[in-house]
Write a structure and sequence with these properties.
4 helices, 9% strand, 4 strands, alpha+beta, 60% helix
Amino acid sequence: MGAKSWWDRTDNRVLEGVLALAALLFGVFGVLIPVLGVVGLIDPMDTRDVELDVTTRVPGAVKPVTADYGMTLTGTDRAELGFVHPDFGQRLLLALPEITGSLLLLFVLVLLLRMARTLRSGDVFVPKNARRLSAIGLTVLVQSVLSPLLPAVTTALLVRGTDMADRVPFAVTLSGKYVLLALLVLALAEVFRQGTKLRADTEGLV
């Protein structure tokens, strides 16, 4: 009597369900709702957390500073840039980082779901999964750059030509942990690729 596998059909269905639910939630709350706000069907995003220029920080300055462009700036070190009545362009710039990040994460979740479905046959070491892992690694690498870059670029566009431009500096801080994660996923993809190639060569000898 053979030993029972530690992974059964129920485990696989639970994994697929969790990934599908996560993809649905990110699709709704990370993409659909922000898009509806941009087009004006629901209340849009109207604030953005920003870091003030060192020379403009005033200890204890917590009252909002109002400019002539329908903007408010509240805080000292980490401040909140607010818009009284944001137009379409401002709503798009405010929501773009979240929408982009959610779309990239949604893409990763879909690829993971497709990989999970290959467990139904009891074999994940297939060429498609190696390509999917490579795509996940590249997506994480892109996200590691876009995650800090998009908020900085969109904030600069939001305050361009206003009094706030001198208060809110352009600042991008890259995180090495996401780059490392991307490299680890790409390395795992290469392991999958070599494993499937080795198995194909072994089967050809039989």
